[in-house]
Amino acid sequence: MFRFPDPTAAPIPFPRPAPARRATPEGVLAELVAGNQRFVAGAARHGHRLAAALAAAADPRPYAAVVGCMDSRVPVEAVFDQDFGAVCAIRTAGHALDQAAVASARLAVDMLGVTLVLVLGHTRCAAIAAAMEPRRPGAGANAVLDEIDRNIGTVDFARTDAARIATRAHVVATARRLRMSVAATVAGAVYDVDTGRVEVLSTL
């Protein structure tokens, strides 16, 4: 029978991995961008191979954490053409930052040595669209939509490109909040579900 760990027990030592390739935030972002370019070009190097999974099982060395949406069209490892063990993926609806998401990003940085946390929004986001819906339930009805509301409150929804602006505003606000919580570089980007391309919004 499963039992929750005793909170009074001594913490289990967590070995810090050796420095990963391209450990600087600039190098990590460059690797992710290059991986996305391979993905768009149809020249991906990595796939779902059991051998790769087994190779990373005993010694994972992630160098990036991606805080993204749970949307089924945005599989983080595929979008950035990354192999097993390379990326810590933290996914919630609309990449909303609840306590667990922030704590997960901190663990990736503090325990696994990740140097870059990338907030990844995407086009055609249902959570963004729902938050922009004037007839949705009021404040407090849904924590995800309430957070998005706070981040896109100054956007003019009458504009034809309101969804695009709102998506970017939400990414930037999420990245700004994460910068106050993690001891790593935080950047923001948007994935276009129609083209497969990732656009970096905030520079390092």
TrEMBL record:
<feature type="binding site">
    <location>
        <position position="69"/>
    </location>
    <ligand>
        <name>Zn(2+)</name>
    </ligand>
</feature>
<dbReference type="GO" id="GO:0004089">
    <property type="term" value="F:carbonate dehydratase activity"/>
</dbReference>
<dbReference type="InterPro" id="IPR036874">
    <property type="entry name" value="Carbonic_anhydrase_sf"/>
</dbReference>
<dbReference type="InterPro" id="IPR001765">
    <property type="entry name" value="Carbonic_anhydrase"/>
</dbReference>
<feature type="region of interest" description="Disordered">
    <location>
        <begin position="1"/>
        <end position="20"/>
    </location>
</feature>
<comment type="similarity">
    <text>Belongs to the beta-class carbonic anhydrase family.</text>
</comment>
<comment type="function">
    <text>Catalyzes the reversible hydration of carbon dioxide to form bicarbonate.</text>
</comment>
<feature type="binding site">
    <location>
        <position position="125"/>
    </location>
    <ligand>
        <name>Zn(2+)</name>
    </ligand>
</feature>
<dbReference type="GO" id="GO:0008270">
    <property type="term" value="F:zinc ion binding"/>
</dbReference>
<keyword id="KW-0456">Lyase</keyword>
<dbReference type="Pfam" id="PF00484">
    <property type="entry name" value="Pro_CA"/>
</dbReference>
<protein>
    <recommendedName>
        <fullName>carbonic anhydrase</fullName>
        <ecNumber>4.2.1.1</ecNumber>
    </recommendedName>
</protein>
<feature type="binding site">
    <location>
        <position position="71"/>
    </location>
    <ligand>
        <name>Zn(2+)</name>
    </ligand>
</feature>
<keyword id="KW-0862">Zinc</keyword>
<keyword id="KW-0479">Metal-binding</keyword>
<feature type="binding site">
    <location>
        <position position="122"/>
    </location>
    <ligand>
        <name>Zn(2+)</name>
    </ligand>
</feature>
<feature type="compositionally biased region" description="Pro residues">
    <location>
        <begin position="8"/>
        <end position="18"/>
    </location>
</feature>
